[in-house]
Amino acid sequence: MVVDGAVGPGGGEPESSDSLRTFGAVTQALREHAGLSREEFADVVRFSKHTVASVELGRRMPDPAFVERAEEALGNTGALRKAAGCLARQPGLAAWFRQWARLEAAAITLYTYECRLIPGLLQTEAYARTLFTEQLPPLDDQQIEVQWAARAERKKLLRNRPNTAFGFILEEHLFRRRTGGVDVTRELLDHVLELAELRNIEIQVMPTERESHAGLAGPIQLLETPDNKWFAYCEGQRGGLLISDPKEVSVLQQRYARMRSQALPLKDSLSLLQRMRGDL
């Protein structure tokens, strides 16, 4: 089973560990060749000076809009598009998930409905390792470490992007299943409750007993880019689908919006999680 974008046996691809720094160096070299300061370049590409600096120093994955605007501003040589293509090869992430991961890293809004497992951004290390060790076909120790490294890196988004609005709708049974055992579930609940205290994170629980449910067709992920464009992503047993068609994205937005009214309110959701924690 696909585990929130994780790559299975044989699905990894090699990547230079300094690919982000290489992309940043190319960007900086082209900018300086064009005679633009970081401030001037930031104005042209409509990103902050801080973002430009982070990209050039290899500390941040460039948003697709950044790549396109930078290309236009720096002569349309194609160098940045090709360099960005190399960044898509991220170890520990399945090929079909990598484009979504790039969009996710720069999103200003990210909504997730999940009915199979706790989303990767909310997982603890113990919970994630339980999923990796139970994956079929089995992973070896090195593959599991690569998987966890990729998952841990993605998880940083919740704290590193305080201006991004994160919303999660989670089925109640995801916690009651006690994946990994009581200790793992106890730590998971503590972790989720701690994250729920952050201003930019909303967590709602969909109760098990629900007569009306708009999400019966499966998990949904939605995100909004800095350009206010919306994308969706749906994942199954052996692959995932990135959806950019506005009409299809709109359908999923409607379903997610309905689920927000069907799930428990924020306060009641946290109360339920706290009660479950107390029962362990």
Please provide a brief summary of the model.
This protein is of the alpha/beta class and 280 residues long. It has helices spanning 19-33, 38-45, 49-56, 64-73, 79-87, 98-106, 125-133, 141-155, 157-160, 173-176, 182-195, 246-262, 266-279; strands at residues 109-114, 165-171, 201-206, 220-224, 230-235, 240-243.
Description:
With about 280 residues, the protein is α/β, with parallel strands linked by helices. The protein folds into two domains: about 20-85, 434 Repressor (Amino-terminal Domain) (Orthogonal Bundle); about 105-280, Endonuclease, Chain A, CATH 3.30.870. Helices cover about 50% and strands about 10% of the residues. The protein has a six-stranded mixed sheet with strand order 3-2-1-4-5-6, sandwiched between helices. A hairpin with a 5-residue loop joins strand 4 (about 220-225) and strand 5. Helix 2 crosses helix 3 (about 50-55) and helix 7 runs antiparallel to helix 8.
